[in-house]
């Protein structure tokens, strides 16, 4: 038995969609303007007689299209397309909405989902990374990877968390993590051997060595913590220390990048105003160069 939708059944509609046993009467223009899928469907073919139904009250005939998605999914899609209905995207439905946006080629819905992920990726970085990979959202992929790499052991202590990530993305994450661990070993060795940094002031060197010992102690600190500690080494008590550090900071920054084998950047779309002392993170990108 077919049931009329309580939300999307418009008396002046000129097209009907049916999903499972739920009937929607909607407006063809809204579908055509919002969805390249429906635009192509209505442009490419005329409905057959079997696909037309007559509205008894007016005698008008309208096309009826049967869709294979769940009724609640089509209802949610229509609620996004129609201006008289509104809902907020959440983690509970963003994955399904991205699937619908991709299937029915609704660019505005894709944009809304991407905007949600940009706002919310810090809450669920692994889920954001998985969705960004599936739907080729390069910006979200890069930013969410920063937080995944920063808490690598937390996310991958349970191997099931790797599910839904491609082998390529898994490899990228593991390579980046290995670069970080090897970088800690390198910086510890060159600092202990006093080959780096080239500091003439013993007091400043001692502070730098203490910092390196802190970040290299097991269990290892996060990459963002290590980056922040290395860039906050300072000495305000001695004029010669301040001058030497000011002169050498650009060199130290360049050397640290070389030691860890990748660039570090702050988080994009930060929830607070940018601060020069904000931590920086390693990241991976959505491209085929691994």
Task: Describe this entry's structure for a reader.
The protein has 290 residues and is an alpha/beta fold. Among the domains are: 3-112, Potassium Channel Kv1.1, Chain A (2-Layer Sandwich); 174-260. The chain contains 12 helices and 5 strands. It has helices spanning 28-34, 36-44, 71-81, 94-104, 107-120, 125-134, 138-150, 152-156, 167-192, 202-216, 223-231, 239-260, and strands at 3-9, 15-19, 22-26, 52-54, 61-67. The chain has a 5-stranded mixed β-sheet with strand order 1-3-2-5-4. Helix 6 runs antiparallel to helix 7 (138-150). It is elongated, with a radius of gyration of 28 Å. The model has no long low-confidence stretch (mean pLDDT 86). It holds the Pfam family BTB. Residues 13-82 form the BTB domain. It comes from Glomus cerebriforme. This is BTB domain-containing protein. InterPro entries: BTB/POZ_dom, SKP1/BTB/POZ_sf.
Structure characteristics:
290 residues, alpha/beta, Potassium Channel Kv1.1, Chain A, 5-stranded mixed β-sheet, 12 helices, 5 strands, SKP1/BTB/POZ_sf, BTB domain-containing protein
